[in-house]
Amino acid sequence: MRLTLSLLLGLAVLTAPATEVFAAQASARMARPFVPCRLTDPAQLDALEAQCATVEIAESDAPGSRRISLAVARIPAVSSRPKADPLVLLAGGPGMGAQLMYAQTSSAFARARRDRDILLLDQRGTGGSTPLACGRELDDPFAAGGADLELAPFLKLADECRNALAAGHDLRTYTTSRAVRDLDAVRALLGYEVLNLYAVSYGTRVAQHYARRHPQRVRSMVLDGVVAPQSVLGPRLALDAQAALEGIWRRCAADVTCRKAFGDIRASALRLQADLQRQPAQVQVAHPRTGARESLAIGPMQLATVLRFASYEASMAAMLPLVVHLGAAGDLRPLATLYFLTTSTLTSAIATGMHNSVVCSEDLPRLDPASLDRRALDATYMGAGMLDALRALCAQWPRGEVDADFYAPLTGNVPTLLLSGTLDPVTPPGDAERVAKALGNAQHLQFEGAGHGQLGAPCMDRVLAEFYAEADPRTLDTTCLQQRHQPPFWISLAGPSP
Asked: What pLDDT, in 10s, does the model give residues 441-481?
């Protein structure tokens, strides 16, 4: 059923009923106490000392429900007398674990960690918390489709994934609403009274619902790459991605070196897309992670995958004009290398089953196909194919638990800092503006030309530490962030020009 905006605005913003909170907290127990451990990123380039524990909790409210394991890690504060309110990280995806995210971004929280513990709870279905992953082949949307996304093989793989997971899990319980209950149960079990939140992308949805349900438990929160509660992920995905890519092309056109090296790069991208549509190409390259020689069929979907995910991060976006220019000239090897790098990162980081349970429960049921502007979608480099495939997948995926007030705008006075990139291909600044207006104590920072997630901005570690220390977004000194510069475009495979 599609919820109208008027119904959303009429929903009451309530905290969770006491009986529900008590039941969730009572079902949680420590299965393994904190012991020393190490957190590593997928590339095994970094390892961080931590303390790890396992919490067991009921998978559902049904009598005799199976119990699932939640992976919890704690990074102790540097200070011997830390503050009582830890910093909790909520990862994106949906489908990424918080521990993996921290392993990749820990430097941004180094100052905040001086006097606060950092708490990392892998959301149920992700990371070490009963992950809903089907393995590399079933998690790769192009594993059955060659150079294009063919619907029948795609759905066959999705069916195999769903059936394999459903044999040991109730897929209806791996949603944001249930994850919020888990988070508060773990908070209570560990004895924390209040939390500070950092959330990125889909994690901002989790943070806002937690703050709605437990406002007295949130001291402050940072929302980075914001999803408004009332937004439906999917319908604008291709349009927002196209807008971000057009911004990258405009930046190249305005850059003398980039324009001189590549000419009209937008026209080159369109020509490359048309060429691959007419005739996909077979390319052999060394896999950037394994070094093994790999063969890849490159068609419009492989090109779209690279364009989309390279747009997320400025240093990757800086490579796109060169990669497109070489591809249009007939050298598709750099494009294939970026494709392997992108897809291997995604399949290792994202639990596809959890992603499907969230999106098919919280977004697709609210999508009105008649409202889609298919002409506009078809005019983008992504087209409407991925959205159509997701709609077909969700028609077969179990629909899970969603709280009645889930889509209502978040109101209240929780001190909130919102971060957006103006060229974010998936969560552009509009949603953050809507969230900021509904909150009574918020500041929204926009980063010109930036993509998705702002932890890499110069001095962001200092800004975050100050915000968590003072919990006052209105007096926060953000002048150092104005020093941010875009990475220079790559002019050759050797890198940017000096």
From this structure: 999 999 999 999 999 999 999 999 999 999 999 999 999 99
First to last CA, the chain: 56
User: What tokens appear for 415 in the block?
Assistant: 């001190």
pLDDT at 158 over 70: yes
Pairing of strands 87-90, 118-121: parallel
User: In this structure, what DSSP letter does residue 129 have?
Assistant: S
The whole-model pTM stands at 0.92
Ordered DSSP codes for 46-88 = -EEEEEEEEEEEESSSSTT--EEEEEEEEE--SSSS--SS-EE
Quick one: tokens of 374? 């298919």
| 171 Cβ neighbours under 8 A, 6+ residues apart | 132, 162, 165, 353, 357, 397, 398, 400
Number of helices (H), then strands (E), belonging to the chain: the values are 19, 13
> Does residue 381 contact residue 272 with C-beta atoms inside 8 Å?
no
Strand (E) positions, 112-256?
118-121, 195-200, 218-224
Nearest to 303 by CA among 329, 270, 351: 270
Residue 6 phi, psi (nearest 5): -65, -35
Q: Is the peptide bond before 94 cis (omega within 30 degrees of 0)?
A: yes
145 has pLDDT over 50:
no
Element (H, E) at 26: helix 18-27
Distances (CA, A) of 23 to 19, 51, 58, 169: 6, 27, 10, 20
